[in-house]
Amino acid sequence: MSRMPFSFPSAALISALLIASAVVFFLVGSVGLFQFVAANQAWPQELAEMVIEMNLTPLPFLFSYLCLLLILGMFLDGIAMILLTVPVIFPVAQALDIDPVHLGIVVTMGVELSVITPPVGFNLYAVSGIAQIPIKTVLGGAIIRPYNNHHNCPGA
Q1: In the chain, which residues have pLDDT < 70?
Q2: Euclidean distance between the first and final Cα of the chain, in Å?
């Protein structure tokens, strides 16, 4: 049995940190550009005015925001969704007198639900790897079916 040299874990760790930091900097830079454009075009203010003109109450607004997060979760990571949507949605929530803590809880729950939404579903791959279950099985369990299929559920 051959042994890995001691330098291997440190080289792998450094490589992983470099890749992760590059992804984070790219994401923050891209979102910073988006926020700059959104602020210059006054998108948050226009969205707040539109919601107020629609006489939308807080509950339908939060429901529509959750739907948006579910759709975005099919293609984006959780941090990207938060960084892209919260700067636009927060002024609207303030205009509707939604408590920031409540909005934060809704955002957190919405993002966590959306990152298990196929086709991408980043957390599904983590579950597959940790539980040693094929990704096809995990994806099958995450898809909402229009019927109840209790005979495949253990304990049901």
Answers
A1: 1-9, 119-120, 144-156
A2: 46
